[in-house]
Amino acid sequence: MERKNAWTTYSPEQTSELEEFSRAYTSFISENKTERECASAAIALAEAAGYTNLNDLIAAGATLEPGARVYASNRGKSLILIELGSKPLTEGMNILGAHIDSPRLDVKQNPLEEKNDLAYLDTHYYGGVKKYQWVTLPLAIHGVVAKKDGTVVPVCVGEDPSDPVFVISDLLIHLSQEQLQKKASEVIEGEMLDLLVGHKPLVIAEGEGDEKDKKDAVKSLLLQILTEQYQMDEEDFLSAELEIVPAGPARDLGFDRSMILGYGHDDRSCSYPSLRAQLELKEVPARTALTILVDKEEIGSVGSTGMTSRFFENVVAEVLALAGYGEGSLALRRCLANSHMLSSDVSAGFDPSFASAFEPKNAAYLGHGLTFNKFTGRGGKGGSNDADAEYVALIRRVMDEHDVNWQTAELGKVDLGGGGTIAYILAEYGMQVIDCGVPVLSMHAPWEVISKADLYEAYRGYKAFLTL
């Protein structure tokens, strides 16, 4: 059951639309590399599209009618967008769910250290990474510093051409005989991922300054710079969230410019098309359309901003109350149990260089469209949601009726590994859920690869689903 290469199916108008969408996506992921930045940018787009903050509606005692557009933010890291449909909410919603966090390095709470006239920030990697991939790359620092007086200072260093960048050093090849004998998982250990951030000492005049400043003069100069530029002292690292990501913009890849090389395709190549599909609904949908962009998927969807929190459930309950369904739990349970969901997360793209990791008949191929994974998990489908046949048939019909290019896949060979998404969490409400997304090469690497055609088909497929 081979699927066509999507590039062979496009009209000139579709090719033009594909390129326009890809440019917008490339700009989005270049400018928004953290979950906070993605949520903030998404809220700005939502407000421009007529969405209103749910908290404002609750405070005003508003009543929601079909066509109402509502958003709710969870600590600036997760976001829900809802457009009420014409059918009763208790008949269920069409839900797109994607995550906006990506593998990265996080700065530790007590990070700053001087060693042999070099200053470093200690880091702790976030999500599943190959640690050796993060050395000798130009890196940027994104995040916030929250101060005791309640002010929050945004930080972004390394993206503007005039900015400095940062790096994690590696051992020179001339001295690497022992290092090269190690397993790949041990070549660079977690505690070796120290970010090089300075080298110049603070010049202290004879008889001035204290002994501490003289002993750690490089660190002292860095603290002076942090005070002047970010109004922070060393203790402010304790309440900072600083994320280390690859510096620089996403770029077109290939002589034919058919692909995009960028940081954070997992999972922004699904979350951005989901966002656009939600915002661009032209008419009031029959079933309520909901898109959730969530944090913490890369570490198990835990915490107050992850999918396992009550944020999703609480927001839907508030919307039901404003729409006149009362404050009891029965309407909420009916609404969720009758819902359909696409768990929009990336899939492993078939890589000919590593063909032995895949089962070719059940692999996702770049350029062959939106990929559906009936199940994920590990080994014997452990930890996965496994969509039922009836729901798969429904999805097939919807995609084919809208001429969406799509394919099915599994995440590599059965016994090699696997992975998970947020699908199983939503399935616990009894709703029908299937994983689908964009195939990716070099998934979880600092720079990942996708096809523009698959990105475009995700956008088209998500729009078709929301009108189901």
Percentage of residues in helical conformation: 25-40%
> At the fourth CATH level, what is the homologous superfamily of the largest domain?
Zn peptidases
- Shape descriptor reads globular
Counting structural domains, the number is 2
Low-confidence stretches: none
Give the end-to-end Cα distance, rounded to a whole number of Å: 25 Å
Percent in strands: 15-25%
Instruction: Specify the CATH class of the largest domain.
Output: Alpha Beta
Classify the fold: give the CATH topology of the largest domain: Aminopeptidase
Q: Given the structure, what is the number of helices?
A: 12
Total beta strands: 22
Query: Kindly state the mean pLDDT as a whole number?
Result: 94
Structural class determined from secondary elements: alpha/beta
Widest sheet: strand order? 1-2-3-13-4-14-20-16-18
Radius of gyration: 24 Å
Classify the oligomer: single chain
CATH architecture of the largest domain: 3-Layer(aba) Sandwich
Reported for the largest beta sheet, the result is: 9 strands, mixed
